[in-house]
Specification:
about 350 residues; alpha/beta; Rossmann fold; Helicase, Ruva Protein, domain 3; Zinc Finger, Delta Prime, domain 3; 5-stranded parallel beta sheet; two-stranded parallel sheet; 16 helices; 7 strands; about 60% helix
Length: about 350
Amino acid sequence: MLDDRALKSSLETGVTLPVYIIAGEDVYLKKQALDRIIAATVEPGDDMNLIRFAHNVELQQVYDELNGFPIMADKKCVVLVDYDINDTDKSDFENLLELAGDPVDTSVFVIYFGNTEIDFKKSDRFKKLVAAAEKAGGALVRTDHKTSGELARWLVASAKKRGCNMSPNVATYMVEVCSADVSTLSGEIEKLCFFVDGGDITRETVDKVCVKSIEASVNDLSAKIMAGDSAAALKFLDELFFANVEPYLIFYNIASSLIDMFRVLAAKAVGKRPEDIAGPFKYGKREFLLRRAQTNLKKFDAKKLDLAFDALIKAEGELKSFGGGERLILEKLIVRIIYIMKTGEALD
């Protein structure tokens, strides 16, 4: 299996593999991987030796192209885009396995899942396809989202290339509030550099220029709550409802911030650090949530968390029971949590 960096290094040697399967979380990196393979196989503008097939193609056509000789070139590149391996019938899938497992010297075959999500653990057909390609000397190119640290370093370097300054802390903040998707971040860093015109990119600049993800916007509400600013929190809740954010998403985010704190508190009780529990609880690239929870715990103790969870349970019951009163329920929840945080007592 190759990631995007390993693929780049491999292609820089001038050698292409006979079969590539491109799949993963990050759409931008998948497209970048495809473009690199094409560039390493055919000359720019050589449309005669670059053949793309859509998901609904008859596989016989793919076979014919793979086995046809390139025109005035050493190799051709044949790309099959978003073929539905799970819904296709058994005979077609077996034919695809043969195409991946019996490559042609004069063709590079790319099976590209650009807009298709693949369950790497559960899809038996995908596993069989990868096994056939690897047995034939090919490879899976898996392009998952980068870690927040990797993305932050990439943003700093991207800003520098455009003549702008960006600190690692600001870059990390940008990843948290915008996206872990390279395509999204690429557009946002371009906007930022145009805005500052060779100057410094600050957190304030990010807040002013960048489009925040829905999740980040809801996270801002939790930040207002943890700051104990009920007026600001209720105002932000109003903005979220105006933006038609799903009430249960808001509730889930508030609950998650408390759950994160409980996990960190429990970990501390047995001598573990937040980073020690990131793996077991599958935080992955969202480990920063545990660091944030550790900071928030300065305002909470076990008793306050117990009372806050009681308020959560009550609010959840009301959300399930009442129709159309979600906003009032969430307003009461926010006020209760802030009161508990400040006084250590429940507000009935």
